Amino acid sequence: MTVPRTTQGFASGHVRFVGAGPGDPELLTLAALRALETAEVILHDRLISTDILALAGPAAQLTETGKTGFGQAMKQDDINARIVAAAQSGARVVRLKSGDATVFGRLDEEIEACDAAGISWSIVPGITAASAAVAAIGQSLTRRGRNSAVRLITGHDVEGYADHDWAVLARPGEVAAIYMGLRAARFLQGRLIMHGADRATPVTLVANASRPDQQVLATTLDRLTDDLARAELSGPVLTLFGLAPRTAEILLPALDKERA
């Protein structure tokens, strides 16, 4: 099929897969804002901020799709069916996903459901959580002389998580952005140490990146699970392996004092 351009008009019976960015509405693209303002049906992830949802047009019907890591979740087949049904009713549909819709968002399954039903669609990219998290600590994901590549990894599915090339990731200078990896932190720590990673390798966790309640925990691979147990991070967490905040400031001062 010919993929519709996101700059074209928002037609009835059309689905736009929109990246909502990491949470700060100032980080929405103009295309995402226009899609929200003109959508008639918005099917959104649970983690979309209320500030972003408030930008929807007054007549838009908002439905949370309710995916929760390791907990209650709407089945993907049910989400697909809702997208298709809304578009077949003739509505302008926005499927609103956290971060960038193309990164760990099950986008392909939803596109395939649209294709099977003969529904047109387009994609509006957004700022992914890794970009927001690394900006929060004043770093870059790549740096000349350190790493020319960065790995984007999901820790949500531990079975798939085990298949990564841990020996490569354990080499000095490697950098990875780990999505949904909070509950798999002990597994991550064990695998990397088992494959020879330096225990002093910096690890930074950013919760609620770009939002008013953003938290930053700077630790090391060796101290990762112990510090996490005391930090009580809440909300979506992005783990940056191999990166420390550029400044010495740690935005969890109570934990910093405890270490001292």
TrEMBL record:
<comment type="pathway">
    <text>Porphyrin-containing compound metabolism; siroheme biosynthesis; precorrin-2 from uroporphyrinogen III: step 1/1.</text>
</comment>
<keyword id="KW-0627">Porphyrin biosynthesis</keyword>
<dbReference type="InterPro" id="IPR050161">
    <property type="entry name" value="Siro_Cobalamin_biosynth"/>
</dbReference>
<protein>
    <recommendedName>
        <fullName>uroporphyrinogen-III C-methyltransferase</fullName>
        <ecNumber>2.1.1.107</ecNumber>
    </recommendedName>
</protein>
<dbReference type="InterPro" id="IPR006366">
    <property type="entry name" value="CobA/CysG_C"/>
</dbReference>
<dbReference type="GO" id="GO:0004851">
    <property type="term" value="F:uroporphyrin-III C-methyltransferase activity"/>
</dbReference>
<dbReference type="InterPro" id="IPR000878">
    <property type="entry name" value="4pyrrol_Mease"/>
</dbReference>
<keyword id="KW-0949">S-adenosyl-L-methionine</keyword>
<dbReference type="InterPro" id="IPR014777">
    <property type="entry name" value="4pyrrole_Mease_sub1"/>
</dbReference>
<dbReference type="InterPro" id="IPR014776">
    <property type="entry name" value="4pyrrole_Mease_sub2"/>
</dbReference>
<dbReference type="InterPro" id="IPR035996">
    <property type="entry name" value="4pyrrol_Methylase_sf"/>
</dbReference>
<keyword id="KW-0489">Methyltransferase</keyword>
<dbReference type="Pfam" id="PF00590">
    <property type="entry name" value="TP_methylase"/>
</dbReference>
<keyword id="KW-0808">Transferase</keyword>
<dbReference type="GO" id="GO:0032259">
    <property type="term" value="P:methylation"/>
</dbReference>
<feature type="domain" description="Tetrapyrrole methylase">
    <location>
        <begin position="15"/>
        <end position="224"/>
    </location>
</feature>
